[in-house]
Structure formats: C-alpha cells, structure tokens
Amino acid sequence: MHIRKLFKFENAHVVRNCSSDRCKRSIHGHSYQVELILAADALDHGQMVYDFGLLKGHIKDIIDSFDHAITFWDKDNPDYIQACKDFSARWVSLPVSPSAEQFSRVIFFWVSHILKQTVMQNGEQDISVYSVIVHETATGYAQCFAHDIDNPKMGLLDLNDFEFSEQVKAEWGDPLLFDKLKNGEKFYNPVVDLQVK
C-alpha cells in the first residue's frame, strides 16, 4: 500500500549547463510542491502505513531546508557560491545540480536515511520511500524511484557532501539533525499506549 504526503517550499537556484539561457544564467525561483510517497506491506497498530503526524518532524524539517533558501551546486563558480553564502541566511549546498530531477533524488535519499535510522514503536513495518515527485512548475515535474538513487549516471549522493547554512540548521526541531543522520544515530518514534487490542 502507498500513502502520499504533500510538502511545499519556495526556492531559488541557477541550473547550470541546461539549454535555457534564463535558467542557466540567472538566479530565479519556483514554488515547489513535493509528493512523498511511502510504501509498506503491513499496517501499524493504528491501521496506517505510517502516521501522517510522524512526517511533521525530521522529514518535514529536512525538506523545509529548501524553503526561502538559495540552493547551489558545490561545483559552481566559487565567487557565486560565496555570494550566496554572504547574502542569504538560508542556503543549501548540493553535490549535484539543483534541478527538479536532483531535488527529487536528494529528498528521496534523505528521507530514506531518516526512515532507516528511525526506531518504529507502533507496529510500523518495512516502511520505504516508493517515490518522490517534485513539481517545479504547474506543468512540469520530476519523479524519482529507488533505482535512481545509486545510479552513477545521475551523480553520486553521499550524506557528507551536503551543507546547510547555520540559519537553516537553527530552524530545525533538532539543530543537530543532519549530524545525527551522518553519524548513523537512531531517531525514535513515540511509544503508543494501545487503546484497542
């Protein structure tokens, strides 16, 4: 069974090396919508794949890192990168281009790691990310599946290659969220007192 949760963020970027002059030469922004689709073959004690309320914690925080931020490719011009850091309190550095395709891969990658490191305590079983869809405009989106994550033709993803501004980290529920993720630390879902057995 699949469930879908919608997230939104406003983000600015430049997409280097693309065909459109406007996109590759000028900072511009989009109102993104992200569809996170989770899958499981069993339901938890609440008869859910995964309680939507649980997605309002670390997963929402990590996706919200992009909101009102400028996102750049860490291979871009060093002067441009420094200007982004100097003139924006909220920024995210990616090891890949900030295209809709890569946003979908990055979010899939991050959320998968969070779920793998989460101790489930209400009967949740084998929760996985089925797909991530990132709508960049009203007419265009990119969709990522599991086989896209470890595909070297799409760029390698490693948790150590992402960087967030201090302002982004300060606005997470846990400012050490990404450090804990990189260190493989466990996250804990709440223990539920079962009302019906």
TrEMBL record:
Q: Which cofactor does it need?
A: Zn(2+)
Q: Which domain of life is it from?
A: Bacteria
- Quickly give the catalysed reaction: 7,8-dihydroneopterin 3'-triphosphate + H2O = 6-carboxy-5,6,7,8-tetrahydropterin + triphosphate + acetaldehyde + 2 H(+)
Q: Which UniProt keywords apply?
A: Lyase, Metal-binding, Zinc
Pathway assigned in UniProt: Purine metabolism; 7-cyano-7-deazaguanine biosynthesis
Q: Which Pfam families match?
A: PTPS (PF01242)
User: What are the EC numbers?
Assistant: 4.1.2.50
The record's listing under PANTHER family reads: 6-PYRUVOYL TETRAHYDROBIOPTERIN SYNTHASE (PTHR12589:SF7), PYRUVOYL TETRAHYDROBIOPTERIN SYNTHASE (PTHR12589)
Q: Which family does it belong to?
A: Belongs to the PTPS family. QueD subfamily.
State what protein this is by name.
6-carboxy-5,6,7,8-tetrahydropterin synthase
Species per Swiss-Prot/TrEMBL record: Moraxella nasicaprae
